[in-house]
Design goal:
The chain is an alpha+beta fold and 226 residues long. It folds into two domains: 75 residues; 113 residues, Jelly Rolls, CATH 2.60.120. Helix content is 35%, strand content 34%. The chain has a five-stranded antiparallel beta sheet, with no helix packed on it. A five-stranded antiparallel beta sheet has the order 3-4-9-6-7, with no helix packed on it. Strand 6 and strand 7 form a beta hairpin. The N and C termini lie far apart (162 Å).
Length: 226
């Protein structure tokens, strides 16, 4: 009698409730499974992508560092060569003069390098050899036939540079002269009384740069210079 009271109910009586409960608990479980699966897939795919991106960033940083080092090295080399060459002494030898008197050969120095003016018309040389002489002069004459001869005297030698007369225009000229080793020369005027030098610029420049050769001795002179 009691056993009939505790007889289990037919399965059809509990099937809707059982299905609902199963659906209620299986939904979160499935979601957990899907989340864990997605996380694993993201680790397998996205993690590798992040690693690749990180490696790419490291390579880019390395390239930038190398470029910066190369740029700094080039700048340092350029500065070194600039300072090295700018600190070298000037090898030019020359002098540039302007006249300060209309009738007498008196000059002042505009520029000079290893050549020096003395007594307003004497120039000391540091090296003998070929010199280019360039001149710009303006002459005024009250006699149309009057001339001025500009000469260089060195010892017993006299080198005429230019004959000038009043042509209503300033004159420009240049020539090459040979001057003796380490010997001063004198600039002189030989002019007619009615001729005046209004303006005169005179320059001498050594043509062999840093080279300076001694004057050769003639044969049979026992090595002595003239």
């Amino acid at each position: 009698m009691f056993s009939s009271g505790f007889r289990s109910a037919p399965s059809s009586a509990f099937s809707p409730m059982f299905i609902k409960a199963r659906s209620f608990f299986s939904g979160p479980l499935n979601s957990v499974r899907m989340d864990s699966k997605d996380a694993q897939e993201s680790l397998e795919s996205g993690g590798g992508a992040r690693c690749r991106c990180s490696n790419g960033r490291r390579k880019a940083v390395a390239v930038l560092v190398i470029q910066s080092l190369l740029t700094a090295a080039c700048a340092a080399i350029s500065i070194y060569f600039y300072l090295h060459h700018s600190s070298e002494p000037n090898k030019d030898k020359g002098i540039f003069l302007q006249s300060i008197h209309e009738t007498e050969p008196k000059f002042s120095v505009i520029w000079n390098q290893e050549m020096h003016l003395k007594d307003n018309n004497k120039v000391n040389l540091s090296c003998g050899g070929p010199y280019i002489v360039y001149m710009w002069a303006c002459v005024k004459s009250y006699d149309t036939s009057g001339i001025v001869n500009l000469t260089i005297e060195q010892g017993s030698r006299s080198i005429q540079l230019q004959s000038m007369q009043d042509t209503q225009e300033c004159q420009e000229t240049h020539s090459v002269v040979m001057l003796s080793e380490k010997s001063e020369f004198t600039i002189t005027f030989k002019r007619d009384p009615e001729v005046y030098i209004k303006k005169l610029h005179l320059g001498l420049h050594y043509m062999l740069g840093a080279q300076c050769f001694k004057k050769p001795s003639p044969p049979g002179n026992n090595g002595q210079k003239l």
